[in-house]
Amino acid sequence: MSPMKVSASAFAIIAASAFSASARDQLQIAGSSTVLPFATIVAEAFGEQGKFKTPVVEGGGSGAGRAALCKGVGEDTIDIADSSSRISQKDIDTCKANGVTDIMEIRIGYDGIVFATDIAGPDFAVEPKDIYEGIGAKVAKDGKLVDNTAKTWADATGKLPAQDILALIPGSKHGTREVFDTKVVLAGCKADGAYDLYKAASTGADDKAKDKDAEKGCYTLRTDGAVVEIDGDYTETLSRLAANKNAMGVFGLSFYENNTDKLKVATVSGIVPSTETIADGTYPVSRPLYMYVKKQHIGVIPGLQEYLDFFVSDDMAGPEGKLVDYGLVADPKLADTQAAVKAGTLMGPLK
Question: Which segment of 22-31, 134-143, 263-272 scores lowest on mean pLDDT?
Fold first, then answer.
């Protein structure tokens, strides 16, 4: 008799039923350091209702949270991954291979990334081009790509303060890094002219390959000490900045707003970052925040559906909700999210 083969979906059902009788009674959540304070606030308020235990909420980064979500189905795996960047197809494929076939994507609101310096330092008014010209490995000069040797922001751009270049940027584990790369580094590289020069130098077979090479070149940053990647959360960035008053740090808006006694924020393209300018779309460096939910755990892990409903409620995530007081920018389409959560709608294909 040949061995019986079990499909991924069948495996998920078997795994779910295997732990349903003795499932844990406390939600397990991990992921983005940006979403962490919001999720913690909701978890504590949820637990205070007395119907379910307070969920366990941990950080670790968006990528790490999604990886943990995709390990499989069962009480030894987490229920929710918080993320400040959108899930990738690679993540989805890993989930599917491990039996995690039903994923809900819940957009909880918006946040922005800001550039901040020491409270006592000079004012900064930056464009993406300025940031790139300070930290890019190569910049355009007289129609050629040259090594970036600028020592101060004034050297790099000719208009910013003559403060030493020391950029504290999010490491690759952060969802913040994705929006930083695409909306600041890549946009700045194109405005500088380096993108076109990288593309012209590419040996790619077609435009798509040349564009890919150009992006790779743009994302190559200085390695001479002018750029420091921070793998920890924003508190580590703040401590590094406190130790070196010349540094410029990249933070989430909500973290900055809780530390305005220590930090001075830069305008970006003439816009002051705020909940208002992010909500109306005028601030150029913002991003949506997500929860990725293992739907196969709903109805098995007590309180999961109730927690989701509670999180996206008007009282929590609405324009007058509790999370807005802590820096979350309410989603104008929150009602659609609430309906999708109630219906248990699965995420569609990535676009």
Answer: 22-31
Its pTM stands at: 0.70
112-286, what's its fold? D-Maltodextrin-Binding Protein; domain 2 (3.40.190)
Alpha carbons 306 and 318: distance in angstroms, whole number: 17
CB-based contacts of 2: which residues, under 8 Å, 6+ apart? none
Of 274, 251, 277, 276, nearest in space to 262 by CA: 251
Same fold for the domain at 8-110+288-343 and the one at 112-286?
yes
- pLDDT tens figures, 100-109: 999 999 999 9
In Å, the largest CA–CA distance within the chain is 78
| Domain regions of the chain by residue span | 8-110+288-343, 112-286
The class that CATH gives domain 8-110+288-343 is alpha beta
pLDDT at 4: 46
Residue 348's CB is within 10 A of a number of other CB atoms, namely 7
How far is residue 106's CA from residue 345's CA, in Å, rounded to a whole number?
Answer: 9
C-alpha angle 131-325-285 in degrees, rounded to nearest 5: 20
Q: DSSP per residue over 14-34, as a string?
A: HHHHHHHTT--SS-EEEE-TT
Confidence (pLDDT) at 24: 85
